[in-house]
Design brief:
Distance between the termini: 17 Å
Shape: globular
Number of strands: 8
Low-confidence stretches: none
Largest sheet: 8 strands, antiparallel
Oligomer: single chain
Length: about 160
């Protein structure tokens, strides 16, 4: 087996504060702890989704921070903290398309790529959302073929890859 390390980045055009819909204020994390801060006019549905996941045995919780909701996820069984957070976030619809593209990619594309990819860390800065990933390939697999398949997925969401 060989391991590839790369970063997926998405340019973000964040809406102004107070814009309607779910706003991704920040997200950061790794396999041990992942935190997402969301702004919205109402949080009850978001809280209910966290509670339902928690009742299913997933280590996820929330707390109110000013006018935002902070959702924190931790590892569970075979899932790392980012996977738990992405499971939660995939149930939401963010107003900003860029955030939704990355969440949808993280929640669904790994299955398309035979489950070989694993999120390592995620961070949102002022201009972009970046996701560090690793991929395990068989010794006889061509890394360039893997990157070609990955770019087909990423180009649909106007996302790019940076090889490490």
């Amino acid at each position: 087996m060989k391991t590839l390390s790369f970063e997926i980045a998405k340019k973000m055009n964040r809406p102004p504060a107070g814009a309607p819909g779910l706003q991704l204020s920040s997200v950061k994390g790794d396999g041990l702890k992942a935190v997402m801060v969301i702004s919205s006019a109402s949080y009850q549905e978001l809280k209910d989704k966290v509670t339902a996941m928690h009742q299913q045995g997933l280590p996820i919780n929330y707390r109110t921070r000013g006018k935002s909701l902070e959702v924190t996820a931790y590892p569970a069984d075979s899932l790392d903290a980012l996977s738990v957070l992405f499971s939660y976030a995939s149930q939401l619809e963010f107003a900003e398309d860029g955030a939704q593209d990355v969440i949808d990619f993280c929640a669904g594309s790994r299955a398309f790529l035979s489950g070989v990819m694993r999120p390592v860390s995620i961070a949102l800065d002022r201009d972009s959302l970046s996701l560090r990933m690793s991929a395990s390939l068989a010794d006889d697999e061509d890394p360039e073929a893997f990157y070609g398949s990955l770019m087909e997925l990423l180009s649909k969401a106007d996302m790019g890859v940076i090889k490490r």
